[in-house]
């Protein structure tokens, strides 16, 4: 039997063909020469998905999101799995309804997931057990299927990933390493009140920052602000929000993500009040928000720093192996040697 599904949602059927008894799959030699929608390239099947090593007992992991095609997770985790001989494959999974997805893919073969936008809060509701910090944040980015009983366990590795990337950059730009957090008593403005926004707000609060939540829907901003003991403002009011200089700005929305790379939430002039601007988006690596901040001399932190750090925590949860394995694979395979984490 040859069973294949067309389109982006069907990519999983092409890659898992050898796991579930398919006779063969198809690939194109190069991008632009596909004979069917979303046919993968031969090099991707071999180098990213390691298709020659996929067997019936190969574990399946993946990143669940919408959109998901931009994710570098398959490159990163696939290389890390391969480097330690871990029998697993990591897939991009375009999902509309998270609960329905889990119901459909309930087999033990599907061992864990990275959870992307917009499913981080829905995934929390679908978990059988939740790590206490993830429960407090109200969002998860990692879901593990416990082998002993099949229970779904939710975790959040976003908050430590983003906050550590910001802290290390601030310490480096100041030329000194302080005993406490460089975020202590800083005004920390979070754009967005979704799953990633909750993680950043919680992390900043834990470091002693004065958290401000700005969101298009003021009610959601207020809800998150109340959770972390912060202040809420409407996104429209942020242009005139200048309580002090040297603030920290963290964008956790999807505004500016590929393909809408020319979009931004704030005018360039507004960024002058900030000492550091962080953007959770990593495609493109330098968003318009970051580019304009850098042009003003503001220190910037790319979402790639957060992406690698949160994936380190996920890799350890997936495999039980040290997260440092993933760092080495990332710096070697994704051409990110210029980032702090590789240095």
Automatic annotation (TrEMBL):
<dbReference type="InterPro" id="IPR013708">
    <property type="entry name" value="Shikimate_DH-bd_N"/>
</dbReference>
<dbReference type="InterPro" id="IPR001381">
    <property type="entry name" value="DHquinase_I"/>
</dbReference>
<dbReference type="GO" id="GO:0050661">
    <property type="term" value="F:NADP binding"/>
</dbReference>
<dbReference type="Pfam" id="PF08501">
    <property type="entry name" value="Shikimate_dh_N"/>
</dbReference>
<dbReference type="InterPro" id="IPR006151">
    <property type="entry name" value="Shikm_DH/Glu-tRNA_Rdtase"/>
</dbReference>
<dbReference type="GO" id="GO:0004764">
    <property type="term" value="F:shikimate 3-dehydrogenase (NADP+) activity"/>
</dbReference>
<feature type="domain" description="Quinate/shikimate 5-dehydrogenase/glutamyl-tRNA reductase">
    <location>
        <begin position="183"/>
        <end position="254"/>
    </location>
</feature>
<keyword id="KW-0028">Amino-acid biosynthesis</keyword>
<dbReference type="Pfam" id="PF01487">
    <property type="entry name" value="DHquinase_I"/>
</dbReference>
<dbReference type="GO" id="GO:0009073">
    <property type="term" value="P:aromatic amino acid family biosynthetic process"/>
</dbReference>
<dbReference type="InterPro" id="IPR022893">
    <property type="entry name" value="Shikimate_DH_fam"/>
</dbReference>
<dbReference type="InterPro" id="IPR036291">
    <property type="entry name" value="NAD(P)-bd_dom_sf"/>
</dbReference>
<dbReference type="GO" id="GO:0009423">
    <property type="term" value="P:chorismate biosynthetic process"/>
</dbReference>
<protein>
    <recommendedName>
        <fullName>shikimate dehydrogenase (NADP(+))</fullName>
        <ecNumber>1.1.1.25</ecNumber>
    </recommendedName>
</protein>
<keyword id="KW-0521">NADP</keyword>
<keyword id="KW-0560">Oxidoreductase</keyword>
<keyword id="KW-0057">Aromatic amino acid biosynthesis</keyword>
<dbReference type="GO" id="GO:0008652">
    <property type="term" value="P:amino acid biosynthetic process"/>
</dbReference>
<dbReference type="GO" id="GO:0003855">
    <property type="term" value="F:3-dehydroquinate dehydratase activity"/>
</dbReference>
<dbReference type="InterPro" id="IPR046346">
    <property type="entry name" value="Aminoacid_DH-like_N_sf"/>
</dbReference>
<dbReference type="GO" id="GO:0019632">
    <property type="term" value="P:shikimate metabolic process"/>
</dbReference>
<dbReference type="Pfam" id="PF01488">
    <property type="entry name" value="Shikimate_DH"/>
</dbReference>
<dbReference type="InterPro" id="IPR013785">
    <property type="entry name" value="Aldolase_TIM"/>
</dbReference>
<dbReference type="InterPro" id="IPR011342">
    <property type="entry name" value="Shikimate_DH"/>
</dbReference>
<feature type="domain" description="Shikimate dehydrogenase substrate binding N-terminal">
    <location>
        <begin position="63"/>
        <end position="143"/>
    </location>
</feature>
């Amino acid at each position: 039997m040859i069973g294949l599904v067309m389109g982006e949602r069907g990519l999983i059927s092409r890659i898992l063909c050898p796991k579930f008894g398919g006779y063969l799959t198809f690939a194109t030699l190069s991008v632009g020469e596909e004979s069917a929608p979303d046919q993968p390239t031969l090099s991707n099947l071999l180098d990213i998905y390691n298709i020659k090593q996929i067997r019936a007992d190969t574990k399946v992991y993946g990143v669940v999101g919408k959109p998901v095609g931009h994710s570098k997770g398959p490159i990163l985790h696939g290389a890390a799995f391969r480097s330690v001989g871990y029998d697993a494959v990591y897939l991009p999974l375009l999902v509309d309804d998270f609960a329905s997805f889990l119901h459909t893919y309930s087999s033990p073969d599907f061992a864990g997931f990275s959870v992307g936008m917009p499913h981080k809060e829905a995934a929390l509701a679908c978990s059988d057990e939740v790590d206490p910090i993830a429960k407090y944040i109200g969002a998860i980015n990692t879901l593990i299927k416990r082998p002993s009983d099949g229970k779904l366990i939710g975790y959040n590795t976003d908050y430590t990933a983003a906050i550590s990337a910001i802290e290390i950059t601030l310490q480096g730009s100041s030329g000194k390493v302080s005993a406490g957090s460089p975020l202590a008593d800083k005004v920390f403005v979070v754009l967005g009140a979704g799953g990633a926004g909750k993680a950043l707000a919680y992390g900043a609060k834990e470091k002693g920052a004065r958290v401000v939540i700005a969101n298009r829907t003021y009610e959601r901003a207020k809800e998150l602000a109340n959770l972390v003991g912060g202040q809420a403002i409407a996104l429209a009011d942020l242009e005139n929000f200048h309580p002090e200089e040297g603030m920290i700005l963290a964008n956790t929305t999807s505004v500016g993500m590929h393909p809408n790379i020319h979009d931004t939430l704030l005018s360039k002039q507004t960024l002058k009040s900030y000492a550091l601007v962080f953007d959770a988006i990593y495609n493109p690596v330098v968003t318009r928000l970051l580019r304009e901040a850098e042009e003003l001399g503001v220190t910037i932190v790319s979402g790639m720093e957060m992406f690698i750090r949160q994936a380190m925590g996920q890799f350890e949860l997936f495999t039980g192996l040290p997260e440092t394995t993933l760092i080495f694979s990332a710096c070697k395979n994704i051409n990110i040697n210029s980032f702090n984490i590789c240095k």
